[in-house]
Write a structure and sequence with these properties.
Blueprint: H1 3-12, H2 16-31, H3 40-43, H4 46-62, E1 69-72, E2 83-94, E3 97-108, E4 111-115, E5 118-121, E6 127-129
Antiparallel strand pairs: 1-2, 2-3, 3-4, 3-5, 5-6
């Protein structure tokens, strides 16, 4: 694959978790929501989010409803170990797209966070967060 195409594909890769987690983080900063301090998202860097996103893509494509996929941030370069699960919960159709509710769980430094977004499979085969 040419570098330009790889860059374009990389730029357009679904960031299910990154979008959800960054939105939570940005909202927390903007609203000064101190309760998010020392939670897994506060330790996550871009490469950690990508590891979680990659796990979400695999889980959405291969796991049955209720079946979990473990993930971790090993190799992401973060000195804080982060791990968790990705569990598709419910499959349905919306606007002609296959959609799934998904539970994302992250553990870091004795804390746990859970997010429950909905993702829909796009025509390019990538899963994208459904706006709520």
């Amino acid at each position: 694959m040419p570098i330009r195409d790889r860059a374009l594909a990389h730029a357009s890769v679904l960031t299910i978790t990154a979008a959800a987690l960054v939105a939570v983080s940005a909202a927390a900063s903007a609203a000064n929501l101190g309760f998010l301090n020392d939670t897994p998202i506060s330790y996550m860097k871009q490469r950690d989010l990508q590891a979680l996103n990659n796990a979400a893509q695999v889980a959405l494509n291969t796991k049955k409803d209720g079946e979990s996929l473990d993930w971790d941030n090993k190799g992401a370069g973060n000195p804080v170990p982060i791990n968790g699960t990705v569990t598709p919960q419910e499959s349905f159709e919306s606007g002609g797209l296959k959609c799934r509710k998904i539970t994302l769980v992250a553990h870091a430094k004795g804390q746990t966070q859970t997010w429950m977004p909905t993702a829909c499979k796009q025509s390019d085969g990538k899963w994208k967060l459904k706006k709520q």
